[in-house]
Design a protein that fits this description.
The structure holds 2 protein chains of 2 kinds. Chain A is α+β, with helices and mostly antiparallel strands. Helix content of chain A is 35%, strand content 14%. Chain B is built from 9 helices and 7 strands; from the N terminus they run E-H-E-E-H-H-H-H-E-E-E-H-H-H-H-E. In chain B, helix 1 packs across helix 4 and helix 5 packs antiparallel against helix 6. Chain B starts with a strand and ends with a strand. Classes of the chains: A alpha+beta, B mainly alpha.
Chain lengths: 248, 270
Amino acid sequence: MATVSFTIFRGNSPDTGAFETYSTETDEGMVVLDAVHKIQAEQANDLSVRWNCKAGKCGSCSAEINGMPKLMCMTRLSDLPLDKPVLLQPMKAFPLIKDLVTNVSWNFDVKKKIKKFKPRPPDNTDGTWRIAQEDVDRVQEFRKCIECFLCQDVCHVLREHRMHDQFIGPRFLVYSAALEMHPLDTEDRLPDLKNSEGIGLCNITKCCTAVCPEEIHITDNAIIPLKERVVDRFYDPWHWFLRLFKKS
Amino acid sequence: MHTPDANVSHSIPRFGQTARRDAWWVSPIVTFICLSAFVIYTTWAAFQGEYYHHGSYLSPLYSPEIFGDSPHSLFGPKPGWWPGWLPFSPALLILWAPGLFRLTCYYYRGAYYKAFFLDPVSCSVSESKKRYTGERAFPLILQNIHRYFLFIALGFWLFLLQDVWQALWFTDPATGEKTFGIGVGTLVLAINVVLLGGYAFGCHSLRHVIGGMLDHLSGSPVRFRAYKCVTCFNQRHMIWAWCSLFSVGFADIYVRMCAMGIWTDWKILL
């Protein structure tokens, strides 16, 4: 048993809210979410925190722990420096609801605007398709996403520049990559990616990759391949020439 | 027990302000120092125009030597049409290509946006700039032509490979006869070519061109295998990028020191 201090943001507005420090007894193996629940049970019954699975699979308990976006349920206290109070804040890229809870509904609105999966006609008379394993292997990685939105929170285009109206963020570039690279999909999302979804705003800082709890290689395997496809379509003069040739 | 804490701010308004407690500033500072040192050194070395070859060795900063006074020159000495007011060095004719290849490289872009443009200086650290256009507007929109510099860089890599072959043959000053051998310089140039190959063959644009652009990789088995190979290099792209950067600089220093007579090129096998 050790006493650990936590400095937690309290309030429903970044302007009027304040930090409060709580000390609580901790056991070996505890994660940050365990400690927050203990504080909630023993000292601050009105402390708001969103959580569900406590297993790193639902993506609900996203917050900023000592300044870095992390899942509270996957952050062990033994991995944190405990000489100072552990600092807990809500995600900064989204509107605050209360304490550690933010309104992430913007993400769901963005997802609705992305062109849906549009498969080619079925290969077989029973309405099924045949897909080679190597063709789907690449997009399987993207399906690991648990929509915790930590990548959206750390992305400086959203977090610092607040360009939510021009940029869909890393999460939805991964989603677009999963659709765009799918061997059955026939939809064309490249004009949207370049224009309304703002892929050109990403400047490849790889912060999204660094915070992903599912260790998806967001930048290398999703964003850069999509950027290259956008280059093919809109910036590469050789591809312009080839398209002219094909048309004629 | 809980107490209000007035010492912690929720809003992060100023540049560099963050709640992070790790040494986030180390990476951008190291990147800034290393890239600055490399650019300063290569610029200085490129303008020297001498001590860039030693026997069968040719500095990678001067290869391919299109025009120049060394025996490695492809088309002879400095051309007569070269403007007198313009300083001449064989490196100035070619160094723009690998330079722009690295400048537009996806890895280096992320690194120097942080270290030089502080945009952002590190993840979850507040920025100085308020206006942001990313790579959508001039001049950064030009980063999209990275693939063309890749193609040129791959051509240059073949010349460097040939330089390693030439570095395996040493001329006897007495007889003029060429004999096979391996010197420390041969190893330096060979390691440099391996590291540059690892960097160039792991390029994100190459990964796209070689197979990443396809949704049905299974339909092109050769391209699929090539894609997997490039992906393998690409997974360590940052490591290859830094190692090849240092090896290019060191290879030039090695050839320069030998040419100046400061270092002796020890022969391992002759």
